[in-house]
Amino acid sequence: MKLNRKSFLLALTGALTLGMAVATPATAADDWPNKPITYVVPFAPGGATDILGRTYSQMIGQTLGVPVVVENKPGTGGSLGSAYASRAKPDGYTVVGGTISSHSINVSIYPDIGYDPVASFVPVILTGTLPNVLVVRADSDIKSVDDLIAKATAKEDGVTYGSSGVGSSQHLAGALFAGMIDAKMLHVPYKGSSPSLQALVAGDIDLLFDNITSAMPLIEGGQLRALAVTSSTPADALPNVKPLKDQGLKGYEVVSWQAVFAPAGTPRPIVDKLHKSMYAALQQPAVQERLKSLGLTISGAGPDELGAFQKAEVAKWAEVVRKAGIKVQ
Description:
Elements (H helix, E strand, L loop, with lengths): L4 H27 L5 E5 L6 H17 L3 E5 L6 H8 L7 E6 L1 H5 L15 E17 L7 H10 L4 E5 L5 H13 L3 E5 L3 H10 L4 E5 H9 L3 E6 L25 E9 L4 H15 L2 H9 L3 E5 L1 H22 L5
Helix pairs in contact: 1-9, 2-9
């Protein structure tokens, strides 16, 4: 079949356009990275997500040969910084430290968080999981879980517990505890683990169900007393602290998680390079020792496995939030 000049040019243009579309991701991946990468931490400095972000930034910066700059954007239980990251150009130069709250719980609590935890991102790596730890001040008259239950159920207004934000794992851990002991407990949200820990030490609140990573330094320093962990088994970092389920709260379990995501549309070759560099960082003995000492069970699962895990978490916590009646108008 013969083609006239116009048809030939149209066909040639289409072929070239298709070729460029197919070649672009590979070319982008080949050239990436050639400038600094921004690692968004959607919580205040000092918390678990911040510690992991700074660990990653140092290690992958060395591997990739470009600076990795941590940018803290706290607020709304991790949603503010996550929304910011979701709007970034999907070129591999912006990633965000996602958590159980920012990337699975908040969508069921807030009317509009500014992003879809699944559709607005591509998964990169599941860093690991960690329990929360129930802590009080070292000089508190609450010296055991039994003491806490007695005090919480005896007071009409209950006791006060803090968290890193509404909808965080710390918040839901406290809400679940209060529901199981049939007591009123006043929730006081803060913009991250560090401010909530400071409030506890200062005596502004009675207790916290904080991430074990954030609370460990104050526990080891003697400022806080650990009463229980929220996992079903003892944590390696606190082997002598029993789970709540073994202290009268049968079936109680809350485990937080930490992961990394990139904006939706980030080319898969770049996502794979990010995962490779982060996975390699997690294999370093010094990094493993540091993270395990803080209570993190290291995973390293890749984009596909993290994606499936995240979708299941979104569904799970939607049901928990519905039953607890937690909503922010």
